[in-house]
Design goal:
- The protein has helices at residues 12-35, 42-52, 74-83, 89-121, 127-130, 154-160, 172-180; strands at 56-62, 65-72, 138-141, 165-167, 193-196, 209-212, 218-222, 227-231.
- With 243 residues, the chain is an alpha+beta fold.
Amino acid sequence: MFRIEVTFDFNIINFVFTILSWITVGFIAIKIYNKQSVKLKAWKILIVLVAGLLSFSVNVNWFDMPLRLSILPLGVWILYFILKSKEGRWERYRQFAWLGFWSNTIILAFALLSVPFHHWIYPKDQLSTYLSRVEDAELISIHPAAKENQVLQIEKFLSQRDSMKKDKVFNDKWYNEYYINTEPAKRNERFPYQLIGTSPRWGSGLHSMIFIEEDGKGMLVTTMKRQLYFRSDDSLIDGGGSR
C-alpha cells in the first residue's frame, strides 16, 4: 500500500508574481484616481474593482500550468446596470470597473512570465528539485518482493544525486527483460520500495512520491502530472545490487 504524506510547501515564484500583478493593478488604479476631478472613496473603488473581476472564463493548460482566460466582462455589465440609474455615477466608476476586468489579463500575463523563472530556478529534470532534504528519509516496503530492513544510504545518495542520469521509465531493455525474458509467475514488482520523510526544494511547490527500484539504483519520481526516472551507477540502499 502506498503511503501518502501531506506537505505544506508553496510555490514562491507564483506568489511573488501574483503580488507583482496586484501592485501593477494598484498603480494603474492610483493613476486613474489622480486624474479624476471628483475624488471617490477608496472602499467604493475597491468594491468596483473586485466586482469588475467577475467574468466568463475558459480554463486552459500551458506548460502544465492551469490558466484562466477571461472572455466576457460579466462584472462590468452588472455594474453598468446598477450604476446607470443615477446620472454621472457610471461615468465616475467606469474606468475602475474595466480595470477590474482587465486585471484578469494582467494577472494572467504575470503568471505566464513566472513559468520560465520557475523552470530556471526549479529545473524539473533535476532530482535535487524533488529530493532536497533527505536527512529524515525512510524506506518502506510496498510489495512482498521487497527485501526486509532496507535503508537509504543518505551520504552515498547525496554524493550521486546531481550525477544521476535521467532515463526512460519503460525502455526497450527493461521491457524485454521483464515481459519477454521472464515468465509471468517469476515477475517481481519493479519498484517495491517507497521513500518517505523527504522534502522538495523549498518554494518549488512540487509534491511527489518517490519509489526505489528493486536493485536500489533507480528512482521513480511520480507527481500529479508526470513521471521521471533517474538512475545511479551504484545501489543506494543497503542490500541492493545488480539484478
